[in-house]
Design goal:
Elements: H1 27-30, E1 54-66, E2 71-82, E3 87-93, E4 97-106, E5 111-114, E6 116-119, E7 123-132, E8 138-146, E9 165-168, E10 180-183, E11 204-213, E12 217-220, E13 223-229, E14 234-245, E15 252-255, E16 258-264, E17 267-273, H2 281-285, H3 288-299, E18 308-312, E19 320-321, E20 326-329, H4 337-342, H5 346-354, E21 362-364, H6 371-389, H7 391-409, H8 431-447, H9 449-463, E22 466-468, H10 470-481, H11 486-492, E23 500-508, E24 511-518, E25 530-538, E26 541-549, E27 553-559, E28 566-569, E29 578-580, H12 585-594, H13 598-618, H14 629-638, H15 644-653, H16 663-675, H17 679-690, H18 697-703, H19 709-721, H20 727-734, H21 740-753, H22 759-768, H23 771-786, H24 790-806, H25 810-820, H26 827-839, H27 843-851
Helix pairs in contact: 3-5, 5-6, 6-7, 6-8, 7-8, 8-9, 9-10, 12-13, 13-14, 13-15, 15-17, 16-17, 17-19, 18-19, 19-21, 20-21, 21-23, 22-23, 23-24, 23-25, 24-25, 24-26
């Protein structure tokens, strides 16, 4: 599942500089003794893996649909045997069904014998015809109707709904939206459309008979066997998967898809997209065969399934889902060639593909162990970027992961493996994804590449087609390395928090004294064992030292013939921790020119940017000394850096001023705005030029012709904010663009201008775009309405209320309710919000409403 990642990871440079940002003060030092920090681990009840009583061996489903009522009519034939102990009852998960019959099925005679059962709309408890031993199989056949829309609403931030089965535009009444049916099973939502043991520690083979109108294409797990035409004009497609997997990985997708065929070593690799995007399917997904080959080789474990398909659906409730052999993606992935000029979707594609080893082949035994799925899928993004686009790009992505985790850690710090979660949906967070991926990177750096990938191979081979917990991973690494790694797994996987380090170094009498303090609150966070590499540059020589920090306060002596030019702690930039190591401008400059990694150069530029900002503030007192010359020189050189992320950051360092070089810097940034090979750098340069005293309106107008949507949107924003007399006419040229960067820029202009003629544009976009886009457009539509007359305002507010009550999307409903808050002084709006609160069925959303003033 890629619930936490719904956007590409290249548009924004993370801003933390570990050389200059001070560490957090330990909470214990500033809080009353009996107080608990806001981020402290929250302990719920213990959540073990589900007890295995009956083992589900095979699932055969025969399904058809009532589009009008949004029902699924199904027959499920399920094969079981007792797991170990004899059993005379069977419990199945089945949410909100109408049960028509439950029978014992005899496959030899095809006879059906009714069984007694009770049903509370969540669990079916079936009385078997006898007590079965673990050597005896039996089959149950259930005829039922699933009614997903009548279930209580639920979900999480990562997976916004848990209905399991979704009808999109079922009556065909929504313009510009295809009719589709699709499913989403994680965590335990597939039991909303078929009866099963809905637990990750269960595995079953499957058959799926899907009956639909002949105009539709179907997709499911496994291999397509045949399609049968029925007398009533429908067809039944038969899909079969012979290798077992967890019930949450079952899937269906039904729609009028274009299917673009590809292959890997003779295995089908297919891309299901809307027909308009068929010409671009291989531009989007075409590197998939190369990814399969790369991961198969890296893991020394051939892709384990019989096919690989990827389908894009409308209004998906997450970023993507790793259903075995048939991955589902959100519609934002559909892109044309121009959109792909800015960036690709390789990260999310690699993420879901890697799940086919880590998650689908070897599955977490319980949701408490979810990082065994998601941390690996997250790290796959790094591995693919490292292989395909180079280590600097991979480290850039890794840095974003670090920032995501640190942002979450301000309010939440939990063990990565959490048996005492409050809700299983809480596991889908930046701990399981971002932090977990970075921990795997540290483990790789500690044991070395050869041992790391050999351990992963052994983990997969020993546990293939089974469910696991974190200790299975530890044991694989211990077997390969011969080292007891409890210390690593206990502090990184089983404990909350991260190290918060203060570093200081001094030089006397041929020795460097390195003082390291661990400042994290040890009430909740361990004192870490940290194997770290330190690089010392002195007298033209570079010396690498391996040290290990084990104490809260530790002093380490390192030899150096002369005073060092630079001491670089964590030379490989691999530690998931906050590091405060103050350095002079000279040291930071040396680090930029000599640092071994992208991150060390990044930290140097970020640190020098602070120098430039301080110099800019000092200019209020003494303008002649407005810039630190060394810092400015390094930043100017960084404008020519080989890696685009450093160039982008260097432009930011000149955001407020061009320093002593003045016009030369401005000219360089202008050149970059028009000619830099990376679109995000061109966009950053356009943005920087907007803040100059000189008006660069002609440059912004040239940017309107840029091939990149990102540059176009930034240039359009800069153009109308620079006072261009024909701004409104230029905006009109781009109002029908589907690209969201451009669309939101147009929306911003309309909101600022308050032109009543733009009303129909807003309403059209709010009714024809995806839910994700609608939620963001509401942020512009509400301020826009503030500028209109009362009559038009009232009309618009009714549209917002309609979205709050009729949308199926959590974020759209919440955004609509919040948008109405801008008009909270109006009596009719007070009534609207009251109606919305009273009629909302999602308790989580209702609670949020009650907290909003």
């Amino acid at each position: 599942m890629n619930g936490c990642q719904t956007t590409k990871k290249t548009a924004t440079i993370p801003q933390t500089d570990s050389s200059t940002v001070k560490p957090s003060t330990p909470v214990a030092a500033i809080s009353a003794p009996d107080s608990v920090p806001v981020w402290a681990p929250r302990k719920g009840n213990y959540n073990p893996e589900r007890t295995k009583k009956n083992d589900l061996l095979h699932t055969k489903l025969e399904v058809s649909f009532d589009w009008q009522k949004q029902y699924l009519n199904g027959i499920a034939t399920l094969t079981f045997k007792p797991y170990f102990y004899p059993q005379n009852t069977l419990e199945l998960d089945a949410k909100g069904f109408d049960i028509k019959s439950i029978n014992l099925f005899d496959p030899a005679s095809k006879s059906l014998n009714p069984l007694q059962f009770t049903y509370d709309k969540r669990i079916i408890t079936i009385q078997l015809n006898k007590t079965y031993k673990r050597t005896e199989n039996y089959q149950i056949q259930i005829t039922y109707t699933a009614k997903p829309n009548e279930l209580p609403a639920g979900g999480s931030e990562a997976i916004t709904s848990d209905k399991g089965l979704y009808f999109i535009n079922p009556l065909g009444t929504e313009p510009n939206k295809p009719q589709q049916i699709w499913t989403q099973g994680e965590t335990e939502a597939n039991s909303a459309w078929f009866p099963t043991i809905d637990s990750p520690n269960e595995r079953t083979t499957q058959e799926m008979y899907i009956t639909v109108d002949t105009a539709f294409t179907t997709l499911s797990n496994g291999t397509f066997v045949y399609s049968r035409t029925n007398r009533d004009g429908t067809k039944t497609d038969y899909w079969k998967q012979d290798k077992p997997h967890a019930p949450y990985l079952f899937m269906m997708a039904i729609g009028k898809f274009a299917v673009v065929n590809d292959e890997w070593k003779g295995m089908p690799v297919d891309y299901y997209v809307e027909p308009a995007y068929a010409p671009y399917a291989k531009d989007i997904f075409g590197r998939t065969p190369e990814m399969i080959e790369f991961f198969s080789t890296k893991l020394n474990y051939k892709f384990p399934w019989e096919k690989y398909a990827q389908v894009v659906v409308r209004d998906f409730v997450s970023g993507a889902m790793e259903n075995t052999t048939a991955v589902t993606f959100m519609e934002a992935v559909q892109s044309d060639k121009r959109q792909l000029l800015d960036d690709h979707w390789d990260g999310i594609i690699a993420h879901e593909l890697f799940h086919h080893w880590f998650g689908d082949l070897v599955t977490t035994e319980s949701w408490a162990n979810l990082p065994l799925n998601e941390s690996f899928a997250n790290y796959a993004e790094y591995l693919w970027a490292e292989y395909k686009y180079g280590k600097e790009q991979a480290d850039y992505l890794g840095q974003i992961e670090v920032e995501q985790y640190f942002a979450e850690s301000e309010n939440k710090q939990e063990p990565l493996i959490r048996y005492r979660y409050l809700d299983k949906e809480d596991m889908f967070d930046s701990h399981s994804y971002a932090k977990g991926g970075r921990i795997l990177h540290m483990l790789r750096k500690y044991v070395g590449d050869e041992a790391f990938f050999e351990a992963l191979h052994q983990y997969l081979k020993k546990n293939e087609f089974t469910d696991v917990e974190i200790h299975n991973l530890r044991l694989a690494f211990e077997e390969v390395t011969g080292e007891d790694l409890n210390w690593f797994f206990n502090q990184w996987f089983m404990s909350a928090g991260h190290p918060d380090l203060a570093i200081n170094h001094t030089y006397t009498n041929g020795k460097i004294q390195l003082d390291v303090k661990q400042l994290q609150d040890s009430t909740y966070t361990p004192i870490y064992k940290l194997p770290i590499k330190v690089v010392v540059w002195a007298n033209g020589q570079k010396t690498l030292h391996d040290i290990t920090i084990t104490q809260a306060s530790q002093a380490i002596e390192l030899p150096a013939a002369t005073k060092p030019d630079l001491v670089l702690f964590d030379a490989e930039s691999q530690l998931l921790g906050k590091i405060y190591h103050p350095k002079s401008s000279q040291e930071l400059a040396f680090q930029y020119y000599n640092g071994p990694t992208y991150l060390s150069r990044y930290q140097a530029i970020a640190g020098l940017t602070h120098v430039l900002e301080e110099a800019e503030e000092d200019s209020l007192v003494n303008k002649a000394q407005s810039m630190d010359n060394l810092a400015e020189k390094v930043a100017a050189d960084a404008l020519k850096d080989s890696f685009w992320g450093i160039r982008q950051l260097a432009i930011k360092s000149f955001e407020k001023s061009s320093g002593a070089q003045g016009e030369a810097i401005d000219n360089k940034i202008q050149e970059m705005a028009l000619k830099d090979p990376r679109s995000y750098v061109r966009a950053e340069a356009m943005n920087a030029l907007l803040n100059r005293e000189k008006n660069y309106i002609d440059v912004f107008k040239q940017g309107l012709q840029d091939s990149s949507y990102t540059v176009l949107a930034t240039s359009l924003f800069a153009y109308f904010n620079s006072g261009a007399p024909d701004a409104a006419q230029q905006v009109e040229k781009f109002k029908d663009y589907k690209n969201t960067d451009v669309m939101f820029t147009v929306a911003y202009f309309y909101a600022e201008a308050g032109d009543s003629a733009a009303y129909s544009w807003f309403v059209n976009k709010l009714t024809t775009t995806s839910s994700q886009v609608q939620a963001q457009l509401l942020q512009f539509f509400a301020p826009y309405l503030l500028r209109l007359d009362e009559s038009k305002q009232t009309e618009g507010l009714k549209e917002i209320e309609k979205m709050a009550t009729e949308s199926q999307d959590f974020q759209v409903k919440l955004g609509a309710y919040q948008a109405l808050g801008l008009f909270a002084d109006r009596e009719d709006v007070k009534e609207m919000r009251k109606r919305i609160r009273e009629n909302e069925k999602d308790e989580k959303l209702k609670n949020i409403y009650n907290m909003i003033p």
